[in-house]
Amino acid sequence: QAPARRAAGGPPRRGVLAGRAAMDAALEEAVRHATSHADFAGRFRHPVKFNGSDFVETRLSAEEQFAETSKLASKSLHVFLERYGNMLPSSDLHALAAMPAASTAEVQYWLERLQREPVKGDRMEKLRRRRRWVWARREMARPEGFFSEDEMKRRDPQLFHRVVGRHLDSGLRLSAPMQGSLSGYLMQQLERECEGIASGGGAPSAAAGDRKPAAAAAGAGGAGGAGGGEAAAG
């Protein structure tokens, strides 16, 4: 008779009920930890409705927020993990991983990502420095990158003129992107001009004769910072 009742839609077995109770308990515990976390208020999305002229946010009570978060965890576990997963302890993640809903690819992705061993502080700092260096090298290689003359002028024209522009003749343009520090750039200019004079038998070229060398101009500027002082000393 018991199989007949089950086939006819009779009450589920005791083991099934116990399994559902365990899943419900795991979800409830995870939701409880998420809603009690200090960062929960900043991540919870209160419902927004259009009243005919504008969108209005309806602020929910703590009990309503718990109910909405429970509903999200039950219907879209992967979204719950994406939004609140880093607020959960590892015990909650292990319990959620045992649920049938955790077999989907989306949930598996977030569980594996959240259960991954966190990177230690010193290792994280090395990774940050590495990423910054890779970004800087990529930007330096781009003609219109972050360190190009045009970009530096656009970001802060006054600062660019005070540090770089006032040491250059109006017709002179830096390579884009600018390579090295100001002092290094001025020393390169001085070396090029010295090489031009030497190759010309001791007489400066026409371009050099029409203007003061860039490095010498920087040294004459006096207040050009360490770059101008180094160039003048050179």
Question: Helices, strands, pairings?
Answer:
Layout: H1 2-7, H2 14-35, H3 40-43, E1 48-50, E2 55-57, H4 62-75, H5 77-84, H6 90-97, H7 105-115, H8 121-141, H9 149-155, H10 157-163, H11 182-199, H12 206-210, H13 214-221, H14 225-233
Antiparallel strand pairs: 1-2
Would you mind describing this structure in some detail?
There is one protein chain. With 234 residues, this protein is mainly α. It has 14 helices and two strands. It has helices at residues 2-7, 14-35, 40-43, 62-75, 77-84, 90-97, 105-115, 121-141, 149-155, 157-163, 182-199, 206-210, 214-221, 225-233; strands at residues 48-50, 55-57. Strands 1-2 form a two-stranded antiparallel sheet. Helix 2 (14-35) crosses helix 4 and helix 11 packs parallel to helix 14. The longest helix has 22 residues, at 14-35. It is elongated.
Question: How do you describe this structure in short?
Answer:
Helices cover 63% and strands 3% of the residues. By secondary structure, the protein is an all-alpha fold. Helix 2 packs across helix 4 (62-75), helix 2 packs antiparallel against helix 6 and helix 4 (62-75) packs across helix 5 (77-84).
